[in-house]
Write a structure and sequence with these properties.
single chain, about 325 residues, alpha/beta, Spore Coat Polysaccharide Biosynthesis Protein SpsA, Chain A, 2 domains, eight-stranded mixed beta sheet, 10 helices, 8 strands, elongated
């Protein structure tokens, strides 16, 4: 399965992370197969293209379904991680595994919410010379007010904190060429935030816009707690601005304290000091809380550095539906 460099008919690997998706896979797998056959029929991609499912330590029948699909049609292949390592690591595993097989990859979730028809335009953009094509939501009408507000706030915070170049309203639906993947393989971060890391690689990029649908079946495996954790990882993994904000806040407090000391000394000399128990308690509580928050943020950075230094594997593939000798 040698890779070709012909942009007119590239080998495409669709990378799909899966975690407990036995309810949606029977539906979405058919759509992915129809799409890849359609792209082949249109002459946009090679028939050597594949749909790669990445089982992220599912506890249900997901992996058995993937193995069944791989037996039924050559376009289906799959890899299984040794344990659940999270969405970002699952996507990374699929991208790195695909890199030596293909010319381009498209990562997409298997729940059917991202419009697979946007793949046609993504492949067209690659043919025009773009190495990265981001799938961007044109609107968020299907989201609740709370989810829409938190998502928009998330992108704004990332933008304000600097050091993080993120495409607004883009998640992990994107086309990446083999050339970009080879360079991205040199990024060894353990704390992954792919939508912030991919733009750092560079190369010509563009966006295609689509409307997101409701989930086809099953329940979302990305609750608010995981979204908040991903957002915090995105900020602390790619930017040190929170540390600089702490420095700025500490400098301001020090300056105000100096003024307060001068004012207190002058009041003492003039004999106009008044006991202020309430104000003292308020100040102690405020600055005590601020110190704890600052220490927590600093501790987060120290912890991430500790994890990075260990350089543990970001993913471990325990099983494949194909032999590595096929490379």
């Amino acid at each position: 399965m040698d890779c070709k460099n012909d942009r007119t008919k590239p080998i495409l690997y669709i990378v799909i992370p899966c975690y407990n998706e036995e309810q949606v896979l029977p539906i979405s797998s058919k759509l992915f197969l129809e799409k890849i056959n359609s792209l082949v029929a249109l002459g946009k991609i090679s028939d050597e293209s594949r749909i790669m499912f990445v089982n992220d330590g599912s506890k249900d029948d997901t992996w058995n379904l993937i193995k069944q699909y791989a037996k039924e049609d050559k376009h289906f292949i799959g890899i299984s991680q040794s344990r659940n390592r999270g969405h970002q690591n699952a996507v990374l595993a699929g991208l790195m595994e695909s890199m030596d097989y293909c010319d381009i990859t498209i990562s997409i979730d298997c729940d059917g919410q991202d419009d697979i028809n946007a793949m046609d335009e993504m492949v067209d953009k690659y043919a025009e010379g773009y190495e990265v094509v981001y799938g961007v939501r044109s609107k968020r009408d299907t989201d609740t007010f709370f989810k829409r507000f938190t998502a928009e706030s998330f992108y704004k915070v990332l933008d304000k904190f600097g050091g993080v170049e993120v495409v607004y309203n883009h998640a992990d639906y994107r086309l990446i060429s083999k050339k970009v993947l080879k360079e991205f393989a040199n990024f060894h971060e353990v704390n992954l935030f792919l939508r912030g890391l991919i733009p750092l690689v560079g190369f010509p990029s563009t966006s295609v816009f689509y409307e997101r649908h409701e989930r086809m079946a099953g329940e979302s495996h990305y609750p608010l707690s995981k979204m908040l954790a991903l957002a915090f990882d995105g900020i602390t993994s790619l930017s040190i601005k929170p540390i600089r904000l702490i420095i700025g806040f500490g400098s301001l407090v020090t300056f105000m304290s100096l003024i307060g000391i001068i004012w207190a000394v002058i009041g003492f000399v003039n004999g106009s000091t008044v006991a202020g128990w309430a104000s003292m308690i308020c100040l102690i509580c405020f600055f005590g809380g601020a110190n704890m928050l600052a220490l927590g943020i600093i501790g987060e950075y120290v912890g991430k550095s500790y994890i990075e230094i260990k350089a543990r594997p970001r993913y471990i593939i325990s099983e494949r539906t194909y032999s590595l000798k096929e490379k």
